[in-house]
Amino acid sequence: MVRRALTSVGTGDGGAGGEEPGPVSRLWHVTLSVSGRPTPLSEVRRGLEQLAHDHPFLLTSRYADDHAEIRYWEEARDLHDAAAVALRLWGEHRSTAQLPPWEIVGLEVIDRTTYHQRVAEGYGPPPAHPVGVHPY
After folding, report:
1. 80: alpha, beta or left, given left = phi > 0 and alpha = psi -120 to 50?
2. Which of 19, 44, 77, 89 has a CA between 20 and 30 Å from the CA of residue 103?
3. Dihedrals φ, ψ of 87, to 5°?
C-alpha cells in the first residue's frame, strides 16, 4: 500500500533548486453526505455555520434534522488526496464545530472539467446558489 502525505492545498510550484517539478494541484468539486440520528435543526445549522466559518472554502451546505450535504472546492494533487481530506473533514471538526455525531454516507469527488461538463449538459448538480448554509 502506498502512503501519501495529505495536503489540503498544494503549491504546484514544483519545488526549488533544480528539483524535478512536482505534481500540479488541481481543483476538485467535493460533495460530502452525512446522516444519523435526528438532531434539532438549530443545532445542525449552528454546527454547519461554525464549520463554514472555520473553513471558508465550504461553498454550500444543505441540512435536515437527520442528514446534511456539504459541497465545496478542494485543491489537491489528485483525486486520492482530495477524497482523503474530504473523508476526514466531518470527523476532525465534529467537536470544534459541535457537529452531530453522524456518519459519512456518501462522497463524490470530480475534477473541475467534469463538474462544468455535467452542469453544461444539464445532468450535474447546479452551481451552488446561494452560497451558505440552508435547510433542504
Report:
1. alpha
2. 77
3. -70, -20
**The pLDDT of residue 132:** 84
Predicted local confidence at residue 123, as pLDDT: 83
DSSP structure class, residue 134: E
- Chain centroid to Cα 23, Å, comes to 21
Output the CA torsion sign for 28, 29, 33, 39.
positive
Count CB atoms within 10 A of the CB of residue 89: 22
Output the nine-digit C-alpha cell for 29. Answer: 468539486
Grouped pLDDT means (10 residues each) for the chain, 136 residues: 40 44 84 97 96 84 96 95 96 93 97 92 70 86
**Shortest CA distance to 29 belongs to which of 135, 88, 107?**
107
Q: How far is the C-alpha of 90 from the C-alpha of 97, rounded, in Å?
A: 9
